Each structure stands twice: as C-alpha cells, then as structure tokens.
Amino acid sequence: MKLFPYKSSNDYTVIVGCGRLGANLANTLSDSGGNIIIIDKDPEAFRKLSPSYGGLVLTGDATEMGVLSNAEIEKATAVISVTNKDNTNIMVAQLAKEMFHIDRVIARLYDPECECVYEEFGIDTVCPTELSTKEIDELLGVPETEVEPV
Ligand code: AMP
User: Fold this and answer.
1) CA 53 to CA 28: how far, in whole Å?
2) Which CATH topology does 12-146 take?
3) Ligand 1 pocket, 57 CB below 6 A?
4) Protein residue closest via CA to atom 4 of ligand 1
5) Ligand 1: does its nearest atom lie under 6 Å from the Cβ of 19?
6) pLDDT at 30 over 60
7) Which atom belonging to ligand 1 lies closest to the Cα atom of 42?
8) Which residue has the higher pLDDT, 132 or 120?
9) Distances from the Cα of 8 to the Cα of 26, 34, 107, 118, 121, angstroms
C-alpha cells in the first residue's frame, strides 16, 4: 500500500457513504483540518455528522457521474468509498481511478475475495471481515498464519 501524506495545502477528500464508518471518518478528517465533502443518497444519513463537522455534504447516488461531477471529484486528492454495498464501492473507486485519475482511492469491501483484484488497479481496499478476523484471532491468542481466502 502506497502511503501519501494526508494533509497538504490543497487536500480535498471525497467520502462516499455517510454511514457509521463514513460519518466517523468525515468527523475525524474534518477535525484534523481536512477539506471534505461527503456524499450519501439518503439526506437523513448526514445527521450522523458531528456538530463540529466543517465540510460539505451532497445528497445523491454516487454511482451517477453527475453526482460525482457536482462533488468536483476531479479536484480530489483522495476518494474513499464506504457505502454498505461492495458493488457501489467498486464502481465509485473505478470511476475515480479511471475517469478522474485520482491517485489515492480507497474502497471498503466486505468480500475478501475481491481485494487482490483491486490492488492491481491501484485501488486500496479495507476489508472489515479480514480486520475483524485478525482482531478476534489476536484476542484468542491464535498464532498468525497465511490463510488463503475461502
Ligand atoms: P453503513 O451501512 O452504516 O456503513 O451505511 C452505508 C451508507 O451508504 C448509507 O448511509 C447509505 O445510504 C449509503 N449509500 C449506499 N449506496 C449509496 C450510493 N449509491 N450513493 C451514495 N450513498 C450510498
């Protein structure tokens, strides 16, 4: 995984999905001084943002090019897609990478089998299934092994 310095004078992060994870990310990145826009198709979702959130919100389906254009995604230094649907996150990540040439693209994927495919396209993935498995194994004291995805 290539590491980028998070903040720079022209940083602009587009977050897709204002669920528990998206809202939390938006709150922490905004609190650390980042320029953020968060997109969700459900306007009620923005109620999860903290009162101190200083970024923008945009209501719309992020799989639509018009919505991504309205978010000025082409100016983004990072795009993070964390909706509850792998297909949506994959589509947004691919649009960000291929159509808008965004360097830093991160997608949440529930299905660990999809992960390696996206690394080839330069899309970083975060898989809650794998992270939870690792954490539970650690709590149980299970020794680390190289396990092939099922
Ligand atoms: P959670 O399950 O708590 O991580 O929430 C996922 C969020 O993603 C919800 O607020 C959904 O409304 C949002 N979401 C799902 N699909 C889309 C989409 N195509 N465009 C924008 N937001 C979406």
Assistant:
1) 9
2) Rossmann fold (3.40.50)
3) no
4) 19
5) yes
6) yes
7) 12
8) 132
9) 17, 9, 22, 26, 25
Q: Is 102 near ligand 1, meaning CB less than 6 Å away?
A: no
Domain ranges of the chain: 12-146
Beta bridge partners of 79: 14, 105
DSSP 112: G
Task: Convert the pLDDT of each residue in 52-104 to its tens digit.
Answer: 999 999 999 999 999 999 999 999 999 999 999 999 999 999 999 999 999 99
The response to whether residue 80 sits with its C-beta less than 6 Å from ligand 1 reads no
Closest CA to 39 of 2, 76, 4: 76
Q: How would DSSP label each residue in 40-96? A: ES-GGGGGGS-TT--SEEEES-TTSHHHHHHTTGGG-SEEEE--S-HHHHHHHHHII
Ligand 1 near 130 CB (within 6 A): no
Instruction: Return d(Cα 54, Cα 45) in angstroms, integer.
Output: 16
pLDDT attached to residue 123: 87
Q: How many CB atoms are closer than 10 A to CB 106?
A: 21
